[in-house]
Amino acid sequence: MSNRRRSQPGRLCASTLAVFVILALNVQARPANMSALKDKHPNSKEDNEILPPDHLNGVKMEMDGHLNKGFHQEVFLGKEMEEFEEDSEPRRNRKKLIEIFTKVDINKDRSVSAKEMQRWIMEKTEEHFQEAVKENKLSFLAVDPDGDGHVTWDEYRVKFLASKGFNEKEVAEKIKNNEELKVDEETQEVLESLKDRWFQADNPPADQLLNEEEFLSFLHPEHSRGMLRYMVKEIVRDLDQDGDGKLTLAEFISLPMGTVENQQAQDIDDDWVRERKKEFEEVIDSNHDMIVTMEELEEYMDPMNEYNALNEAKQMIAVADENQNHNLELEEILKYSEYFTGSKLMGYARNVHEEF
Fold it and tell me: For this UniProt entry, which residues form the secretion signal (predicted)?
């Protein structure tokens, strides 16, 4: 995969952008995975425990094929993300960011190299992995009522429907007696998608039961190469308009809404096209043939790919590398704090050396 180039400000020329928008508007992209149901039913704690999340920390794309806009911050902050809230105290954030810089700077030369940033990204990604493992233990307990260490599809289906407002005892009785479950079309569609995903997570020899490790890959496909591949296939299926199992640029930038109703929506759609075009051309399409294969998308989405982490490190450095020495100094990382943490710091350069 080629190195990422530094992001340049500005917009696509009007004619070029218009072509991409027209191409995109010809396509009605259907929502992928669980998004539609989640929009209809606000997530409760129980939903979060048993439904595969659309968003996966440290993974470059969402389950529904959207780009993960918080990716840079996730792989830079790891489990400390919540400490950098927008309304948190700037001086505290500044101190915390300086502490992070000193940890990334392994050789203590007061600058961060691409290799040092790569190591840090891999470490923070592992933190997200461990957090998912910890949460999965609670999720598994929620769907394993008899505590036998295995969950059947029927056990999961009962808990899922109960979380959607169905009477758990009635559902369990109907399933036990092989009676028809009366659910709306949207819920049935999600159930079918979940069932397919369930059996994909059932490692061979298939026994139609999921243990705790298999349930982890059911909820978090990034923990299993096979399930990551399944996630990629689902995304390609949802974007692939001609059914050839590959993605062209026009397919990748297809607009989810299908129409542009006002100027605000037009601006959002323009951003969508521009961001996805850049990611397609500069990052995902590793051989630059203007076609993204499933293999390329799988490599792009693999959070534990060290080569991806190195490219990510180089891109993160390029964004803030004002003196163009291919390293990051403390002044630079403080100045570009919003990119790294999502939080702006006022007076970023004040007494930097004394504090450091």
Answer: 1-29
